[in-house]
Design brief:
single chain, alpha/beta, Rossmann fold, 2 domains, about 20% helix, iron-sulfur cluster binding, metal-binding, iron, iron-sulfur
């Protein structure tokens, strides 16, 4: 099963990193491959560990929902990857493989093997498509006016701090956010909120969604790090920014935490053009709060003031806005007796 891959990768001086579906199989394969490679690392899912099971010196690196027991002085960017997992019968992309491809160093080799067929393939082309899809989602988030924050987990630590961080992030970018607790997201559930432009799923690293095929969801579903890239002007540009699968990596105390720039920073005034619509994106609303022509209140014809909201704007753009009240335009009449019976046969209808 691994013959072709070993023939191409038989270079002991290069470090390699391996991913396996089950731990017993991983240890057996690692025993066979360690004589060929100087540094072979076997990763495992980042499940909660018992207290006191690992010392601070032996604590493995946790990235992409997995743990990597790296040797001292090593970094994950030095390794190539070989993934064993997935199923030939499943038409959906493997979420574990998708997370690894998005976060792995672009210049390092990455191959996979399906246990059902035993075939290996290079995942470089698929990784490039995933990164392009991720950049498209970031552009959609930058164009969005309303963001729905999906609370996919309520039992993982720091989920409230993460919700607060994302709400402050969208507010700083001039967007409105709504927190929705819907359980596992499905296209039918999210279709009930047509005024929301993009959704952001807040869940544990192993519970995030795989890249969905076009047309499955009514609106795109993003990861928290993609919203961070869209709303935080201090975030590194594409190609340099890491792909973080755990929302805790975006909070203060994490080495990846990037605070928002101060209001007087020039980063907020940088011109930004949408790569989807080709239009110039306006600055955040709070940047023009001192402009006398700008106001959060919209004047109406009869000197009435109404607060503008995305929901009201979305309703006004729809072709059908509900039943017309027609107040004062219909004559007042007394109540009359209506029809009696059931819809299949009323009493005043003749028998057929």
């Amino acid at each position: 099963m691994l013959g072709l891959w070993l023939h191409d990768w038989r270079r002991p001086q290069v470090q390699r990193c391996s991913f396996w579906g089950t731990q017993p199989m991983a240890e057996d394969l690692a025993t066979l491959l360690r004589p060929r490679y100087l540094d072979l690392v076997v990763s495992s899912p980042a499940f909660p560990l018992p207290a006191g099971s690992l010392s601070l010196e032996l604590e493995p690196l946790e990235r992409f929902g997995r743990r990597f027991p790296l040797a001292p002085g090593r970094c994950l960017e030095e390794y190539g990857a070989f993934y064993v997992g997935g199923s030939e019968a499943s038409p959906d992309p493997d979420p574990d493989l998708s997370r690894l491809l998005l976060g792995w160093a672009p210049g390092r080799p990455f191959s996979s093997c399906c246990p059902d067929t035993g075939k290996t393939k290079d995942e470089g082309a698929w990784a490039g498509r995933l990164r392009a899809r991720r950049q498209y989602l970031v552009e959609r988030a930058r164009d969005a006016r309303v963001v729905g924050l999906l609370a996919g987990t309520l039992g993982v630590a720091q989920h409230r701090e993460a919700l607060t961080h994302l709400r402050n992030l969208t507010q700083a970018a001039g967007k409105r956010s709504y927190v929705l607790a819907l359980g596992r997201p499905t296209p039918a559930k999210l279709a009930n909120f047509p005024e929301v432009d993009v959704f952001v799923l807040l869940a544990c690293p192993l519970g995030t969604l795989a890249p969905q095929p076009s047309g499955s969801f009514f609106r795109p579903v993003l990861a928290p790090c993609e919203l961070e890239a869209a709303c935080n002007p201090a975030w590194p540009p594409p190609g340099l920014a890491p792909h973080l699968t755990h929302y805790a990596d975006l909070l203060p105390g994490s080495p990846f935490y990037m605070p928002l720039p101060p209001p007087e920073s020039e980063l907020w005034d940088t011109p930004d053009v949408s790569l989807i619509t080709g239009e110039l994106r306006p600055p955040p609303a709070w940047k023009s709060s001192n402009d006398p022509e700008c106001s959060a209140l919209t004047p109406q014809p009869q000197l009435e003031l109404a607060e503008s909201s995305p929901a009201a704007s979305f309703l006004s753009s729809r072709s059908w806005q509900g039943l017309e009240p027609r107040l004062g335009q219909t004559p007042v009449t007394e109540a009359v007796s209506g029809r009696r019976g059931i819809a299949i046969a009323y009493e005043d209808e003749g028998s057929s």
